[in-house]
Amino acid sequence: xxxxxxxxxxxxxxxxxxxxxxxxxxxxxxxxxxxxxxxxxxxxxxxxxxxxxxxxxxxxxxxxxxxxxxxxxxxxxxxxxxxxx
Length: 85
Description:
Layout lengths: L5 H5 L8 H41 L17 E3 L2 E3 L1
Antiparallel strand pairs: 1-2
């Protein structure tokens, strides 16, 4: 607004909670911010774990065999798009 100035704003009454209530609100919001950041970090970690497992199983062919041992390291071979246990 072109005519909005400090003189007009100085007459506007701003209602706000008392300082102890403001501090309590800030504390809760700070805790929520911390939780959001922690969740972001956990998501990044889980994504990295998922990518590592995918690579280990489907690129390196080290998925668990019937005995729970890594497939390729336990002698498994890829033959014409299939595998032999």
